[in-house]
Write a structure and sequence with these properties.
The protein has 356 residues and is an alpha+beta fold. Among the domains are: 66 residues; 159 residues, Muramoyl-pentapeptide Carboxypeptidase, domain 2 (2-Layer Sandwich). 41% of the residues lie in helices and 12% in strands. The strands form three sheets. A four-stranded antiparallel sheet has the order 5-6-8-7. The protein has a two-stranded antiparallel sheet with strand order 1-2. Helix 4 crosses helix 5. The N and C termini lie far apart (156 Å).
Amino acid sequence: MTSPTRPEIPRMEISRFENGENSESETLESPATDAVRAERESSEFAIADSEFADSTIADADVADSEFSGAEALFSEAEEPDPAIPVPGAGIRAEPTLSARVRRNRIIVGASLALIVVVVLGVVIGNLLVAGDGSTPAPGPGAIVEPTATAHPVNGFDRAAHSLDDPESPWVVVNKQRPIVPVDFTPPDLVAVKVPHTWAPLLRADAATAVEAMFAAATSEAGLSLESNSAFRSYASQVEVYTSEVKSAGVAAADLSTARPGTSEHQTGLTIDIGAENGACRFNVCFADTAEGQWLAANAWRFGYLLRYPADKVAVTGYEFEPWHFRYLGTDLSTELHSTGVSTLEEFFELPSAPTY
């Protein structure tokens, strides 16, 4: 059986000659030819379209498979890779973080915020303290200056006893620091068993110490001491001061005799000491006697202080009295002796008291 032959496409060639030159040839096709070619092109396009559709479906299946694998990998990650760019045009959006990761980030963020608030509170509190006129806490390496109640470098505790309580062995009494209450009387006065011009009374510790000092003066230097005055009550001081004013005037009396309520004798911790033979009694010349010199050099050993030195009138407010000794206890008297400080006002950094 013979196959049908394909119909021959008739062609017609037309040669044109213009100006005696051969310009070009053109092929003209008949309507039948156009129909055959259109049928062939339609068939070829249908085949190409079918192949393209099959290829597109296959590519889509591969892409879906790849995306499913990537999604499984991302679901296992705890934290996103910071190198992954933010999705934009032409970039596939990455899977979102898990609920657990988001919860952990929220907890961490809240903790950091709380720490920042606490730190800011501490800083602001310190600034407020420094700004209200108070002294700020010293930083590392700062040097703290000693005050009247500070502990010196050598460890001596200046705050061990009150400077205001009249029963304290360290009470400071001067023209600017009267005794409170004004009619105070020590509760533990005892008789002092030493030679005297009239019977002395002192507080118990002061009496024991002065008795030991009198005995040492005799055993160590062969000297005999006596008490010329010890405790005086407020009423007794009124009599003494009034008598002094009458004989010398107020200005002179204020240099040698305390006004009532400001006398150390009222504390029961002070004694006026002289030679038993009476030489230079209540006179500055007592400082040149053997008794006066021994007392000036040794009183600190027994807890006593020469209270009104010759070179400290502007500090104490009183003329030199080489017979006036004040009991402090051996802790403080030894510290004063070691440091070379001769007045309570200077040691405790108190204001000088030259006048009332």
